[in-house]
């Protein structure tokens, strides 16, 4: 998968690409990241990328032409057709189902806004989808792009080692529940003792306990997810036990 990032600060790409799962996915050839700076496509001595908003008011708005030329250059860098995603607080909320859909795309171009945002005409002409990472306002789209890249990279086949398998993770586990709690050594600690069932070696009992914990946590913390989960009769019994 290829991800191009259109940003006034494309060096941020090197930061996220150098670490952990995203770094490994790159090394393994599972994702390729490239940054593109609209300033490189701006005209004039000052290479201006923004201007004042029509109608007055505070802040600046990103100009159409440098962004358009930058997106065109990113598109032309690879023959596969690319979905253009504008990171925006006004976009659809990002969730794991959306991440899974994005992870199946051959190419993404992530457009990061700054200032008051991007001229609306550029969005109408070039953007396929607007995505928000939450109901708060960031000063730029780069952190939101990093969130998308990380979430999408770890779903590429071969990006995670077995120990980090995504199948048990919150939202990806059976029914889209939250994950169960996890423990490691030591068994006894001043902060508590590991639940006995996890040391029993009885895989069926362990699976049952984990499912019950996942159901209980989801019920307590995110009851909205249970409505979508399509619980089995056995799940309902575990939840009520
Ligand atoms: N005036 C815009 C509004 O109120 O909708 C906010 C602009 S914000 C200061 C600058 C840029 O940060 C946006 O163009 C967008 O790319 C990014 N951004 C801010 N909050 C975001 C969020 N919650 N999710 C994704 N991107 C966000």
UniProtKB/TrEMBL annotation:
<feature type="binding site">
    <location>
        <begin position="133"/>
        <end position="138"/>
    </location>
    <ligand>
        <name>S-adenosyl-L-methionine</name>
    </ligand>
</feature>
<dbReference type="InterPro" id="IPR029028">
    <property type="entry name" value="Alpha/beta_knot_MTases"/>
</dbReference>
<keyword id="KW-0819">tRNA processing</keyword>
<protein>
    <recommendedName>
        <fullName>tRNA (guanine-N(1)-)-methyltransferase</fullName>
        <ecNumber>2.1.1.228</ecNumber>
    </recommendedName>
</protein>
<keyword id="KW-0949">S-adenosyl-L-methionine</keyword>
<dbReference type="InterPro" id="IPR023148">
    <property type="entry name" value="tRNA_m1G_MeTrfase_C_sf"/>
</dbReference>
<dbReference type="GO" id="GO:0052906">
    <property type="term" value="F:tRNA (guanine(37)-N1)-methyltransferase activity"/>
</dbReference>
<feature type="domain" description="tRNA methyltransferase TRMD/TRM10-type">
    <location>
        <begin position="1"/>
        <end position="227"/>
    </location>
</feature>
<keyword id="KW-0963">Cytoplasm</keyword>
<comment type="similarity">
    <text>Belongs to the RNA methyltransferase TrmD family.</text>
</comment>
<dbReference type="Pfam" id="PF01746">
    <property type="entry name" value="tRNA_m1G_MT"/>
</dbReference>
<dbReference type="InterPro" id="IPR029026">
    <property type="entry name" value="tRNA_m1G_MTases_N"/>
</dbReference>
<comment type="function">
    <text>Specifically methylates guanosine-37 in various tRNAs.</text>
</comment>
<feature type="binding site">
    <location>
        <position position="113"/>
    </location>
    <ligand>
        <name>S-adenosyl-L-methionine</name>
    </ligand>
</feature>
<keyword id="KW-0489">Methyltransferase</keyword>
<dbReference type="GO" id="GO:0002939">
    <property type="term" value="P:tRNA N1-guanine methylation"/>
</dbReference>
<dbReference type="GO" id="GO:0005829">
    <property type="term" value="C:cytosol"/>
</dbReference>
<comment type="subunit">
    <text>Homodimer.</text>
</comment>
<keyword id="KW-0808">Transferase</keyword>
<dbReference type="InterPro" id="IPR002649">
    <property type="entry name" value="tRNA_m1G_MeTrfase_TrmD"/>
</dbReference>
<dbReference type="InterPro" id="IPR016009">
    <property type="entry name" value="tRNA_MeTrfase_TRMD/TRM10"/>
</dbReference>
